[in-house]
């Protein structure tokens, strides 16, 4: 047997385990295990090169899966609704995380994204409410709309300077997200800054188009104060850390009407 057709095991609700033979050399087709709600474990051989769209959609009992390095692509929504899946490692042969790939994986606490990945798609980790941390590698250039929407256990994240695009509401509903390090020059849209208590901005940031109502510590490494869409007033009370040579410029441009902002020099 060298291939298994699309939808081959679709809604086989009593199927608990399966081992795909090494003779299968193509892909796990679209909808192949969709709705196999009793499937708990699957072994994918090194001969498989791709996982199709919605291949494991709503496999709600799947707790463990190993994706081999032979796999180069994972389709849209491939693991959407795998509510029992707690951990997954993406091989460094994969270059993108597609739309809704891990959406509604409510028990997912850990995921490893390799340096080969360049984009994180729309709603890729939507409602992964148990995810506590994630490392975005320097290879990633874009984070899609609502990519981490409602990841309510996520507490901190570092966005590397390779990222040039962050979609709207990317971190919306991340109610535990209190620390973000944004090394990109992109800080715009309502990506979900409302709960942030600490924000670190890289030296290339030129404009800030969002409000930061909960901020307590703001680090800005730009020597020229970025333009503000929403100014700071007396309702804001936080500590602002800026380059030593730029303290006076920030006082003048940012803090003219905000007496409760304390400015300190970054040594």
Description:
The protein is 3% helix and 22% strand. With 267 residues, the protein is an all-beta fold. The strands form six sheets. Strands 12-14-15-17-19-20 form a six-stranded parallel β-sheet, covered by helices on one side. It has a four-stranded parallel β-sheet with strand order 8-10-11-13, with no helix packed on it. The relative contact order is 0.07.
Assembly of the depicted chains: single chain
Structural class of the helices, strands and pairings?
mainly beta
Q: How confident overall, as mean pLDDT?
A: 89
The parts where pLDDT drops under 50 for at least 5 residues are: none
Tally of DSSP helical segments:
1
Distance between the termini: 65 Å
Write down the secondary-structure element order: EEEEEEEEEEEEEEEEEEEHE
How can the largest sheet be summarized? 6 strands, parallel
**Radius of gyration over all CA atoms, rounded:** 22 Å
How many strands appear in the DSSP assignment? 20
Strand content: 15-25%
The spatial strand order of the largest sheet comes to 12-14-15-17-19-20
Classify the helix fraction into a percent range.
under 10%
What is the general shape?
A: elongated
């Amino acid at each position: 047997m060298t291939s298994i057709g699309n939808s081959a095991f679709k809604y086989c609700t009593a199927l608990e385990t399966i081992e795909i033979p090494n003779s299968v050399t193509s892909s796990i087709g679209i909808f192949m295990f969709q709705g196999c709600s009793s499937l708990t474990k699957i072994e994918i051989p090194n001969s498989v090169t791709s996982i199709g769209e919605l291949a494991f959609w709503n496999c709600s009992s799947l707790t463990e899966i190993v994706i081999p390095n032979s796999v180069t692509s994972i389709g849209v929504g491939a693991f959407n609704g795998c509510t029992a899946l707690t951990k997954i490692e993406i091989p460094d042969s994969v270059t993108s995380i597609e739309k809704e790939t891990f959406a509604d994986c409510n028990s997912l606490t850990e995921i490893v994204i390799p340096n080969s990945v360049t984009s994180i798609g729309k709603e890729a980790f939507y409602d992964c409410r148990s995810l506590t941390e994630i490392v975005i590698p320097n290879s990633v250039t874009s984070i899609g709309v609502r990519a981490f929407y409602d990841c309510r256990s996520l507490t901190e994240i570092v966005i590397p300077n390779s990222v040039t695009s962050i979609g709207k509401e990317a971190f919306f509903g991340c109610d535990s997200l209190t620390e973000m390090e944004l090394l990109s020059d992109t800080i715009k849209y309502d990506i979900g800054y409302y709960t942030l208590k600490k924000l670190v901005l890289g030296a290339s940031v030129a404009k800030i188009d969002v409000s930061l109502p909960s901020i307590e510590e703001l680090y800005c490494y730009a020597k020229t104060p970025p333009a503000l869409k929403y100014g700071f007033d007396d309702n804001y009370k936080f500590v602002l850390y800026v380059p030593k040579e730029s303290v006076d410029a920030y006082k003048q441009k940012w803090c003219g009407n905000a007496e409760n902002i304390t400015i300190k020099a970054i040594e």
